[in-house]
Each structure stands twice: as C-alpha cells, then as structure tokens.
Amino acid sequence: MNANVSIVASRLGQVKPSASIAAKAKADALRAAGRVIIDFSVGEPDFPTPHHIVEAGKKALEQGHTRYTASAGTIPLRNAIIQKLQRENGLDYQLQEIVVGSGAKHIIFNAFTASLNAGDEVIIPAPYWVSYPEMAVINGGVPRIVNCPASTGFKLTPGALEAAITPRTRWLVLNTPGNPTGAVYTSDELRALGDVLLRHPQVWVMTDEIYEHFTYDETRHVSILSVSPALRSRTLVVNGVSKAYAMTGWRIGYGAGPVDLVKAITLLITQSTTCASGASQAAAAEALNGPQQCVRDAAMVFQQRRDRLVRQLRAIDGIECDTPPGAFYVFASVQGLIGRTTPAGAVLNTDQDVANYFIEQAGVVTVDGTSYGLPSYVRFAFATSDSEIDRGCAALSAAVALLHKN
Ligand code: PLP
User: Fold this and answer.
1) String of DSSP letters for 221-276
2) Best mutation site among 20, 105, 245, 367 for ligand 1, i.e. most ligand atoms within 8 A of its Cβ?
C-alpha cells in the first residue's frame, strides 16, 4: 500500500471536533501555562457527585461487581429507569425497551449507527448541541439544519418542521431543555410539532431530555411523548445521569424506545463496548432510586447563578441576552461587538473573533455561536461558582471597554 495514503478514513474528513471540548482543552492549556483563566465553556456541574451515590458505586466494587454486565444494562438499573420514566414523565416502558450506554452521547451515536442508511436525513434545529450533526455525518446521515432564531425563542416551529421534512427524513432531533440556548418547549409547542409528525410516519423522534431537571421559575419540562403519545412507536427518549446528579465522569446514559431499535443499539454495544461500567451502573441506579433533594438543590443554585450571570452580562455594552428558562447556558448575542477594533488594531469580524478576544484579553473562555449553528452569539455555561461568574464578568467588562467603535 502507498505509504502516503492516510490511515484516517476519508469520511472523517467531514467531521469537526467538538467545539466545547476544544474550548475546555484551550482553557486547560492556558492555565497550565500560568494564565489566570475563567472558564465558561464547561458543560458540566461543578458539584461533586452526591455522597450516597458515590457510596453505592464503592459498595458495588467492594461486593465484587467488577465484571461485565448484560450489554443492555443491569436489571436493577433498567428497572430504576423504568420507574423514573413512570414517576417523572408518566411514560410506561418494559425492560426490553430500555438500553443503557456509556453516556447519553453513546446512546445517540449508536441510535444513528443503528438506523441511518447513507443519505438519510436528520432534522436538527439550530442552535444545536455541537455533536448532533457530526454524529449523523459519521454514520452516513445528512444533517438537515433548520434555523430557529431568537424571535422564535430558538425553537422549531411546526411550519419550519413541515418545510424541512422530505421522503428521506429519518429523524427529528429535539432537545428540551436545550443546549446551547436553555430553550424549553411548552406542551402546546410539542403537541403542534407532534401533529406535523403524525402526518409523516417515516420520521422518528429523538428526544434528548438530559437537562430535564434544570428548569427555572415557572417553567417545567415536558416530554413530547406525554402530549403526543401516538408517536411512541417511533420515538427514542434519551436521558442520563450526567447532568442531574453531577455524574459526567461515570458515563451512564440510557435510551427508551421500540424494541427493534433498542435491540439494534444493544447489538452495537455487544460488538463495541460490551457494556457500561458495572460500578457506574450501580451508582446510577442509586441516583435514580434514591433521594432526589440533591437535584432540586442543584437546580436552585443554578437558577441563582443564571440570574447573577444574566444581570452582569446585560450591563456590558455590546452583549445582549434573554434569561434562559432551562439548562445551564446563556446564549448571548455579541452582534454589538462585531465591527469593533481591539487595542492591537484587529477588527472583530465574527463571533469566533469575539470569543478569541475574550480569551486573549480577559482570560475568559466561552464557545462561539457559529459552532452551534448560529453566528453572532457566544455561549456561557453557568455551571461555575458565583465568584468565577463575578470575576469573569468584571474581566469581560474591562476587555470590552478597551474596544474602539468604528
Ligand atoms: N445531550 C446534550 C444536549 C448535551 O449537552 C450533552 C453533554 O454536554 C449530552 C447529551 C451528553 O451527555 P452524557 O454525558 O450522558 O453523554
């Protein structure tokens, strides 16, 4: 074989690295080089995993749960998931309709591998979580991006959905509460989307509900299946313990859906990871079965941080944002900064220039909106402490004051 031929498969040429993981890596590298860095890029709670959950993981190890488990997940964890879906979402599932993966991301990835034939289309409302389009592409799918501007609350409308559906559409990806905007769909909005989908039986729904416990003020999470139950035979509910229980590193997520799809995802797990970590599964079962006060406490803390961040960002000339009803992100417009000149004489032409300026001048790490499919914005994660929020906003304010308006 020609030694110059790359070992990397050609289809990976179209795949972008995760912008949020890249931003975190940049923050870590700058910190290691001695810079003071305030990191608003991280999409994970800064709390430790609650004690009773850690103890369940430790106990599982001590009791010898150190081996492979069933590929679809342990029976105790799948039962805990069934009870959770019933208790919190009013959804009824059987054991063979549940599959556990190494994170919700792993479930989404495997669901695409299991279902997409080359050229199948995946409708992804933008702004979107950075990984959806890339996971579709890796698996031979064609992302069909539908722009959902601030004027629609960054949400997909029935008209826009209808217009995006073609005979090749395989999936609609819904993410509520959403990353990166914190948008939360209401029952009426979901019902209206459901009505469109009922007219297009070839389209499946992937509903990613990983932020369901982080809704604020009067807002409440609703699953599309609770208002459009007729979609059950073509919906995959995706969720996990990473965000709600501060368990990002334990890597446990799950999918609930029709048996054929769940079996196909499980088949992929048997031939790839074999199963998710057994100790992590025991800890996740405790998270779902155990006391839920830790989740409510986290949500209250996030709500206060959200308000603190929004108040300070709004005080900066050139940054505008609404108060997000869910998740732990503020998606702020930096349109007002675009066109301004830095002290070094460079013009900020894009949101990526703005995000780079925030890092270089203020040591503040954010993620540019372009990476989420909507330019002129940047994303701030507020899963960080009050003092970091204050220091970060003060540094940003000082950096913005140095810009010249042309
Ligand atoms: N879905 C969304 C919308 C996310 O933002 C993330 C993580 O950032 C995930 C899924 C991944 O969750 P997990 O840690 O369970 O893989």
Assistant:
1) ---HHHH-GGGGGGEEEEEESTTTTT-GGG--EEEE--HHHHHHHHHHHHTTT-S-
2) 105
Between CA 261 and CA 257 the distance in angstroms is 7
Q: How do residues 188-229 score in pLDDT, each as one tens digit?
A: 999 999 999 999 999 999 999 999 999 999 999 999 999 999
Nearest CA to ligand 1 atom 7: 43
Q: With the CA atoms of 364, 131, 89 and 148 taken in that order, what torsion angle do they form, in degrees rounded to the nearest 10? A: 80
Q: Which token pair is 213?
A: 């416990």
CA 291 to chain centre: 25
Per residue in 350-376, pLDDT (tens digit) is 999 999 999 999 999 999 999 999 999
pLDDT at 1 over 60: no
- Cβ atoms of residues 101 and 274 within 8 Å: no
Placement of tokens 């217009």 in the chain? 163
